[in-house]
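Below is how a single chain appears once it has passed through the pipeline. First comes the sequence as given, then the structure the pipeline wrote out for it. We keep one example in the README because the format questions we get most often are answered faster by looking than by reading.
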Amino acid sequence: MLTQHSKIAGGLETHWFEIDFERWTGRKGEPLDGHLARLAAFYDIEHELVESMARNARSGSQFLDKFMAEVARQLGKPRWVEKTPENILRLDTIAAYWTNAVVVHVVRDPRDLFTSMLETNKLDSVQTFIRYWAPFFQTAQRYVQTPNSEGLSLIELGYERLVTDTRVVMKELAAAIGEPFEEAMAGFDGCSEEYHKVLQVTGVHSPTLRRMMDPLTTNRIGIWKNALTPQTVKDLGAEAARCGLSDMYARMTSGQGE
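Resulting structure:
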């Protein structure tokens, strides 16, 4: 939704932090040429230019900075945003390179998130889910959750509030990142472009991107109620507690029904 702003460019996830220039590998250890080719296709940038950026970069951070600057330049926008979820696990790396970065951490009721991941076959057990979910919040807890003038700022944004009070939340977010609010940010009517782009380039059907084709609505809030058993819900809370996140889990599920 931030990219609907006239000054902010963005696009598909880049997984920039998986790039290893010494081994010349990309995501999941694949040859970097394949990773770069996908980025070029996803963002409609000449492959030769993307490869040149990679060969002249000393780190994934430097590559991303140059790559997204080019994306922004081609779109005629002065700023950019990168939305790979695992960015939250690289806050130290981000803070070291982009000293005044603003990181927006969208959080969601973990029961709904677990249900969604079950639906898309991404995870298959409570234990696997909590092992995936916990590091995001263990990392985030080390940083302040309100923007400040010095150093990295981490803004926590609740998915449920974003969906139910979109205009107000986006106005607050615009103010937090120092941009004027624009009405284009006040809603999301669905976008099929990224889904079809990934399908065209990779041949892979992405259930997550498929959902991005639908407008932002409240119908995904509380999906756990018709999907999880009481025992599964109890197990989620117990596993969160074992990771030292019982307070976080309680806060994120508070007011979302039982």
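Strands lie at 8-9, 79-80, 102-107, 153-158.

See the next section for the split statistics.
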